[in-house]
Design goal:
The structure holds two protein chains of two kinds. Chain A is of the alpha/beta class. Chain A is built from 16 helices and 14 strands. Helix content of chain A is about 35%, strand content about 15%. By secondary structure, chain B is an alpha+beta fold. Chain B is about 15% helix and about 20% strand. In chain B, the strands form two sheets. A two-stranded antiparallel ribbon of chain B has the order 1-4. Chain B has a two-stranded antiparallel ribbon with strand order 2-3. Classes of the chains: A alpha/beta, B alpha+beta.
Chain lengths: ~475, ~70
C-alpha cells in the first residue's frame, strides 16, 4: 500500500495534549534519538494495520517513560521493568486489545529481567519492543546489562570489563532458549536499509499478536547520541562499529506460520462471581451512625492485638474492622506475624476512624489487647496515656505497671476453655471491647462475624463467646 | 516532481536526514534559528526522488513531509 505522501502517521496523537508546556507537536527526546525513529515506525504500523483504536501502549521507566504523550491508543505507565506483567493482565482481561510493551535495556534486561523471561515463557500473546541502546539514558548514562565490553559509562569509567561485570546480555538469544515465543528478531537503526527492516519487523510482531500466535519481541539497536557522547550522525556508525558485531541482527525465531491462532474469549466476571469467589456475602447489615454516642476517649481507636500465633489475634482484629465498616467508618487492618505457622508471636493493628486514616500502622495504640506475657512486656510502654490495656489474666501473672491508662484484666483463656474451646478466647476479647467502649453494637458484630468466619457451624459458639466476654467487664 | 517539506519548528537539526538522503538534496539552514533553537534542515529545492528515506530516519513525528508525486503537492 504505497502512499503518495509520507507524513506524521495516524498512530500518533494529532496534538500531544498530555505533554506539559507549550510545545505539543515535538517529542521530548534528544536530537537524533533512536526512540523517535522507532516511535514513528510503530505509529505508522498501528495506522496501517488499523488497530490503533484497540491498542494499549505500555510506557516503561527510562527516557521513553512518556510514550503515553504520543500514541493515539490506550496508554498506561508502569513501574520499572514490570511492563510484561502488566501487559499480561491487560491482554488476558481484554483479549481483543493489542497490547504493546515498550521497554529500554535498563528496564527490560536489568530490573525487569525476570518479568520478561516469565512472560515470554508463558507465551503471552503480547508484543514487546525492546530498545537496546547499551546504556541507561534517562538517569545520566550508567552501565546497562547490554553495555558493551570496554564501553565507558558513568559507572564503568574505565570501560566495562568481563572480569568485573561479565558479558553483555543478549536478550533475544536468551529468550530463544524458551519454547514458547513465536517471533524474536533483532534489528538496528544504523542506516536506512536497516530502518526498513525494523519497519517490517515492527509490523510482523504486531500482526503476530493480531493473529493470536503468541509472544513476539523485536530488539532494536538504537542510538543514544547524548549518552554515547557522539553527534547524531556519528551515532549511526557507532551502532555499526560497536553494537552490530556483538548483537548480531536477524530473525532468531519465527514459528508464526506453524502455529494455530488462539483467540480466547473475554473473561466475563461479574461482581456476583467475585463475591462468590471471595466467599463474601451479598446481604450485609449497614447502619449510619456517628461516634457521638461512644464515650469520647474510646472514639477513633487505634488498636493493637498481640499474642501467640494460634490465639486468633488476626481474626479478632478483622472482626472489629469488618464491624466498623458497617457504620460507614474508615478502617484498616494489618497483620504482623513471624515465620512460624504455630507458636511464635503475632499481632495485628487496626484503625477504626470517622475521618481518613493517615497510616495503617499502629505504633502507639489507644487500645492494647495482650493475650500473653511477652506481648504485655513488649507493648505496655507504647500505649497512649488515657488508653486501655485489656490483658489475659489466664496467662499473665502480673498487673500492668502503667497508672496513666485504664487496665482491665479478664481471664479470656479460662472463659474460652469453659465454653469448650481455647480458640474462642479472641471472641471473648471482642465481647469485652464492645461492652467497655460501646464502639460496636451486638447485631453489627454478629453480622461481621458471618463475613470473617467461613464455617457456619462456628458462628453460633463464637457469638456465645462474645456475649460471655461482654458480661465479664 | 517529488519533493519534501521541512516543518521548520518541528525539526531538531540533528542532521540524520541530511546524512541519509541518497540524493544529497537536504542541507542545514544556517541562516535560520527555529523556535526550538536549532538550525533546521532545508530542502535544496531540487533532486528529490521521493524515496522517503529522510522521513523514516527522522526521529521527529512531524518534521518532514515527503510528497512522492508532484500532483498531490
Ligand atoms: C524502581 C526504580 N529503580 C531505579 C530507577 C531509576 N531509573 C530510572 S530510568 C533507569 C534506567 C533506564 O534505562 P533504559 O531502560 O535503558 O532506558 P533509556 O533511558 O536508555 O531509554 C533507572 C535505573 C527507577 N526509576 N525506579
Ligand atoms: S538520553 Fe539517549 S535515549 Fe534518552 S532521549 Fe536522549 S538520546 Fe534518547
Ligand atoms: S528533519 Fe528530522 S532528521 Fe532532519 S534534521 Fe530535522 S529533526 Fe533531524
Amino acid at each position: 500500500m504505497a502512499k503518495d505522501i509520507l507524513r506524521k502517521p495516524g498512530g500518533f496523537m494529532d496534538t500531544f495534549v498530555y505533554k506539559p508546556g507549550h510545545d505539543k507537536k515535538n517529542t521530548h527526546y534528544c536530537p537524533g534519538c533512536g526512540h523517535g525513529i522507532l516511535h514513528k515506525l510503530i505509529a505508522e504500523a498501528l495506522e496501517d494495520l488499523g488497530v490503533a483504536d484497540r491498542t494499549i501502549m505500555i510506557s516503561p521507566v527510562g527516557c521513553s517513560v512518556f510514550v503515553y504523550y504520543y500514541f493515539a491508543t490506550g496508554n498506561i505507565q508502569v513501574a520499572h521493568g514490570r511492563a510484561p506483567a502488566v501487559a499480561t493482565g491487560l491482554k488476558r482481561a481484554n483479549p481483543d486489545s493489542i497490547v504493546i510493551s515498550y521497554q529500554g535495556d535498563g528496564d527490560l534486561a536489568a530490573i525487569g529481567g525476570n518479568n520478561i523471561l516469565q512472560a515470554a515463557n508463558r507465551g503471552e500473546n503480547i508484543t514487546v519492543f525492546f530498545v537496546n541502546n547499551a546504556i541507561y539514558g534517562m538517569t545520566g548514562g550508567q552501565m546497562a546489562p547490554t553495555t558493551l565490553v570496554g564501553q565507558k559509562t558513568m559507572t564503568s569509567p574505565y570501560g566495562r570489563s568481563v572480569e568485573n561485570e561479565g558479558h553483555p546480555i543478549k536478550i533475544v538469544e536468551l529468550l530463544n532458549a524458551l519454547e514458547s515465543p513465536a517471533y524474536l528478531e533483532r534489528t538496528t537503526l544504523e542506516d536506512s536499509k536497516n530502518i526498513a527492516k525494523t519497519r517490517k519487523a515492527v509490523r510482523k510482531a504486531i500482526q503476530c499478536q493480531i493473529d493470536g500466535k503468541g509472544f513476539s519481541l523485536v530488539e532494536v539497536l538504537a542510538m543514544c547520541p547524548s549518552q554515547w557522547r557522539v553527534s547524531p550522525v556519528e551515532s549511526k556508525k557507532w551502532i555499526t562499529d560497536n553494537m552490530v558485531p556483538y548483537f548480531t541482527p536477524g530473525v532468531k525465531r519465527d514459528v508464526i506460520d506453524e502455529r494455530e491462532g488462539y483467540y480466547p474469549e473475554r473473561p466475563e466476571i461479574g461482581s456476583e462471581t467475585i463475591l462468590e469467589l471471595l466467599g463474601l456475602r451479598k446481604e450485609k447489615l449497614f447502619r449510619d451512625r456517628s461516634m457521638s454516642d461512644v464515650p469520647e476517649k474510646y472514639r477513633n481507636p487505634q488498636i493493637k492485638v498481640a499474642g501467640f500465633g494460634g490465639q486468633g489475634v488476626l481474626l479478632l482484629g478483622q472482626t472489629l474492622a469488618e464491624a466498623g465498616m458497617r457504620y460507614g467508618w474508615n478502617v484498616s487492618w494489618i497483620p504482623s506475624y513471624g515465620p512460624e505457622m504455630r507458636g511464635g508471636t503475632a499481632n495485628c493493628q487496626v484503625n477504626i476512624s470517622e475521618g481518613p486514616i493517615g497510616s495503617p500502622v499502629v505504633d502507639f495504640p489507644t487500645i492494647l489487647v495482650a493475650l500473653n506475657k511477652p506481648s504485655l512486656d513488649k507493648f505496655e510502654e507504647s500505649v497512649q496515656p488515657g488508653g486501655i490495656i485489656f490483658y489475659n489474666t489466664s496467662m499473665i501473672d502480673r498487673k500492668p505497671a502503667r497508672t496513666d491508662v485504664e487496665v482491665i484484666g479478664v481471664p479470656f483463656s479460662e472463659i474460652a476453655d469453659e465454653l469448650g474451646n481455647l480458640r474462642f478466647a479472641n471472641m471473648v476479647v471482642v465481647g469485652s471491647i464492645l461492652a467497655k467502649t460501646k464502639l460496636i453494637e451486638m447485631d453489627i458484630v454478629k453480622d461481621a462475624l458471618a463475613e470473617v468466619i467461613h464455617h457456619k457451624k462456628f458462628i453460633e459458639p463464637n457469638i456465645v463467646a462474645i456475649e460471655r466476654g461482654a458480661s465479664a467487664v | 516532481m517529488p519533493k519534501i517539506v521541512v516543518q521548520i519548528d518541528h525539526c531538531k537539526g540533528c542532521g540524520m536526514c541530511i546524512d541519509a538522503c541518497p540524493q544529497k538534496c537536504i542541507e542545514e539552514d544556517s541562516d535560520v534559528l527555529n523556535k526550538l533553537g536549532y538550525h533546521p534542515a532545508k530542502y535544496k529545492g531540487e533532486g528529490c526522488i521521493g524515496c522517503g528515506i529522510c522521513f523514516y530516519t527522522c526521529p521527529e513525528p512531524d518534521a518532514i513531509i515527503v510528497y512522492k508525486k508532484d500532483e498531490v503537492a
